[in-house]
Amino acid sequence: MTAPASGPSAGAEPGGLRIETHGIDVIGDADRKGAPRDLFWPWFAANVSVLGISYGAWVLGFGISFAQASVVVVLGIVFSFLLCGVVALAGKRGSAPTMTLSRAALGVRGNRAASVLSWLLTVGWETVLTTLATLATATVLGRLGWGGGTTTKVVALVVVAALIIAGGVIGFDLIMRMQTVITVVTGVLTLGYILLTLDHIDLDAVTALPAGSAPAFLGALVFTMTGFGLGWVNMAADYSRYLPRHTSGAGVVAWTTVGASVAPLVLVVFGLLLAGSDADLSAAISADPIGALTTILPTWFLVPFAIVAVLGLVGGAVLDIYSSGLALVSTGLPITRPVAAGIDGAIMTLGTVFLVFISDDAFFFTFQGFLITLGVPVAAWAGIMIADIVLRHADYDEGDLFRPEGRYGDVPAVPLVILLLSTVIGWGLVTNTSASWLQWQGYLLEAVGLGGRDGSWAFANLGVLVALALAFLATLVLRRGAVRRQEGLPASHVELVVTDLP
């Protein structure tokens, strides 16, 4: 076991960039700083990506009308990011990363299952975002006649990966600075993209889109939730943990939700208008989500577009690699957070090489399969975690978050069974045709009368919502007494908080 770095991060002169030495430990009072409004910057920057415009085409791809899609976008984005806001509240209460605080719900060692899940999701997301940034750069430079082939992609990958890995390794201070700059630059340039492409919108074509069925509506809703808030919920406390204890809990929830939601709401609705106006553009987005958006731009704006596209994607990937490093440490590996971020950066780079240079699958189908498959267990974990936060009235006992013999237990059976059963039931209610090895999903659709894998409900992906609701309700009912007993115990008064476990 090793002691945490309780003082300032080691590194450069005061005020300069410093490599963050904090890992999964609790942040000491001396290092807590800021206000809830500071959460706006990282969350806005991570979600202002022009990828949000492509979501408009994907949502309409479920066969629903513009009105239905607009409801889907508002409900899916705001509700899913509200879940992030609730989890961020735990960061303020416990001043530790999400996957450390999750030990209160799943046990000190039992939580390693959730840590592995979180690591897979975040590494997957950072790989997806790096891939998109690489492809977008190559597409723009190709249109300008400056390259666009293999060499261009290699150079783009090296530059993008270097930015992301640097942010992940150096840590919190650099990330907060990067996200502030990214917020301003991408916000302005994204507005420019919208203004330049307004004349491409055909309102008659958009309003003529026919309404879809209830299964199609729910399928689009689930896809939106997994693509936005449920893709971030497992790391939502990683940035609120630096806030002082006296910080307003309502402010933490509100600024997280607003900061994360405002850009996607504008971008996805605009994407609905563009995709509904042009069927060819909508189809092109499936293969190259960012590059396809350049086809309706004047040449002189291609370079600014490349800047906004790459910076927006980097903004999201930087948060992912930081949190994936924390998740990897939380699995029990005896490594530091910077080393974990470096390992994840290497995996991210190799994954991007595969997707850019080797894989020939349509991007959207691979992406959708990734979201839905991991979306089910993540939703189950979110249900457990959020119910646990709702049940608690006091701050976390910091010492017991690191002691298997403490109040939170080692491998508690009830929450782990809830996680397992909710996932099993959820996977039985989703289908996935993106890869042959995922076609086992949907095994409950016939049994519950939803028409089987070929029925109208097959692609509604109800399993994500079911897993979330089932895990939340089961935890509220079955864990209430355990939480009350935990909060009734005296404080552990452990002075040495450990950062890993044997």
TrEMBL record:
<feature type="transmembrane region" description="Helical">
    <location>
        <begin position="411"/>
        <end position="430"/>
    </location>
</feature>
<dbReference type="InterPro" id="IPR001248">
    <property type="entry name" value="Pur-cyt_permease"/>
</dbReference>
<feature type="transmembrane region" description="Helical">
    <location>
        <begin position="179"/>
        <end position="196"/>
    </location>
</feature>
<dbReference type="GO" id="GO:0022857">
    <property type="term" value="F:transmembrane transporter activity"/>
</dbReference>
<keyword id="KW-1133">Transmembrane helix</keyword>
<feature type="transmembrane region" description="Helical">
    <location>
        <begin position="119"/>
        <end position="142"/>
    </location>
</feature>
<comment type="similarity">
    <text>Belongs to the purine-cytosine permease (2.A.39) family.</text>
</comment>
<feature type="transmembrane region" description="Helical">
    <location>
        <begin position="295"/>
        <end position="319"/>
    </location>
</feature>
<feature type="transmembrane region" description="Helical">
    <location>
        <begin position="457"/>
        <end position="478"/>
    </location>
</feature>
<feature type="transmembrane region" description="Helical">
    <location>
        <begin position="339"/>
        <end position="358"/>
    </location>
</feature>
<keyword id="KW-0472">Membrane</keyword>
<dbReference type="GO" id="GO:0005886">
    <property type="term" value="C:plasma membrane"/>
</dbReference>
<feature type="transmembrane region" description="Helical">
    <location>
        <begin position="154"/>
        <end position="172"/>
    </location>
</feature>
<feature type="transmembrane region" description="Helical">
    <location>
        <begin position="249"/>
        <end position="275"/>
    </location>
</feature>
<keyword id="KW-0812">Transmembrane</keyword>
<protein>
    <submittedName>
        <fullName>Allantoin permease</fullName>
    </submittedName>
</protein>
<feature type="transmembrane region" description="Helical">
    <location>
        <begin position="370"/>
        <end position="391"/>
    </location>
</feature>
<dbReference type="Pfam" id="PF02133">
    <property type="entry name" value="Transp_cyt_pur"/>
</dbReference>
<feature type="transmembrane region" description="Helical">
    <location>
        <begin position="216"/>
        <end position="237"/>
    </location>
</feature>
<feature type="transmembrane region" description="Helical">
    <location>
        <begin position="66"/>
        <end position="90"/>
    </location>
</feature>
<dbReference type="InterPro" id="IPR026030">
    <property type="entry name" value="Pur-cyt_permease_Fcy2/21/22"/>
</dbReference>
<feature type="transmembrane region" description="Helical">
    <location>
        <begin position="40"/>
        <end position="60"/>
    </location>
</feature>
<keyword id="KW-0813">Transport</keyword>
